């Protein structure tokens, strides 16, 4: 599965803690991420993350473009609900595209834990049939 890792600044520690805790599961999958989040996850875990731009510089939109083509299977996007983001429209657009393509999306640590355990259990097998199929 191809997994996107994104975290707003105040949620980056959550993402690093999560990536360390579930490193063994994440290692079995292809990881992509926004610039700063992906770099921090690589430094903390040694896992490889394909990097896109930083979120405010278009990274969310680049990841959204992959979702639009149904090329992502899981998005872990830890949002900060207490800080205004200059690129809020990009954030909303990414969430919308996940809904469009039925791509599982966690916007907080609690949901991410449940989804990653589901991933380990094989609950994402249905994605194999849908992968790369757009708007069906
Ligand atoms: O802003 C972000 C998501 O909206 C995250 O971007 P960075 O990982 O580059 O900080």
Automatic annotation (TrEMBL):
It is an enzyme of class 4 (lyase). CDD domains: MGS. PANTHER family: METHYLGLYOXAL SYNTHASE. Its EC number is 4.2.3.3. The keyword Lyase applies. It comes from the Bacteria. InterPro entries: Methylgl_synth, Methylglyoxal_synth_AS, MGS-like_dom, MGS-like_dom_sf. This is Methylglyoxal synthase. Pfam families: MGS.
